[in-house]
Specification:
- The protein is α/β, with parallel strands linked by helices and 172 residues long.
- It has one domain (9-169): TIM Barrel (Alpha-Beta Barrel).
- The protein has helices at 53-60, 81-98, 110-120, 135-143, 156-162, and strands at 9-12, 21-25, 37-40, 65-74, 102-107, 126-128, 147-150, 167-169.
- The chain has an eight-stranded parallel sheet, covered by helices on one side.
- Helix 4 runs parallel beside helix 5.
- The protein is globular and about 40 Å long.
- The mean pLDDT is 92.
Length: 172
């Protein structure tokens, strides 16, 4: 298991149960003192924003950090895909350096995401957050070693496809 068994919600932006949730924040965002677990990344919608190397070093030193992200590719919103992919590559490098899983937001860009995973050959696990796709897509992603996280809206057949394998729950 890549996250503590205490964690029952791997991705939230609204901390309601600090003992069991991973709070997703962006660099420079204030982190509540009661947050026990955090993930930090640049959402693809904001991939054109800059974070200094010093800012990332400070984030990576936070003992509450359990994942990198949210990061990813979104064909429907945000800056162009070249900018989003450049930021995603930075996050992959951070994930590898820190030895932490990567939380990924992906909309209509799964083929490119799979191609990047094959190219980069990461050692750390990649988790697709808020997966809403169908059974076939779920099986395809899992066949490429991607993990799935299901929020409040999901496809029942995709959840069945995940079976007793390693998948996650989230509130966002």
């Amino acid at each position: 298991m890549i996250f503590s068994e205490q964690i029952t919600d791997i991705h939230t932006h609204r901390l309601t149960d600090p003992e069991h949730q991973i709070l997703s924040v962006e660099p420079g965002e204030e982190i509540p003192a009661n947050a026990r677990y955090i993930s930090v990344g640049r959402h693809p919608w904001h991939a054109d924003r800059e974070t200094s190397d010093e800012g990332w070093a400070q984030i990576l030193a936070d003992p509450r950090l359990v994942a990198i992200g949210e990061t990813g590719l979104d064909k429907l919103r945000g800056p162009d895909l070249v900018t989003q992919e450049r930021e995603l590559r930075k996050h992959v490098a951070l994930s590898e350096k820190a030895g932490l899983p990567l939380i990924i937001h992906c909309v209509k860009a799964f083929d490119r995401l799979i191609a990047l995973k094959q190219e980069l050959k990461p050692r750390q696990r990649w988790v697709i957050h808020g997966f809403r796709g169908g059974e076939v897509q779920a099986r395809q992603l899992m066949a490429h070693g991607l993990l799935l996280s299901f929020g409040t809206r999901y496809n029942d057949k995709a959840l069945e496809a995940a079976g007793s394998g390693e998948y996650f729950r989230e509130t966002d």
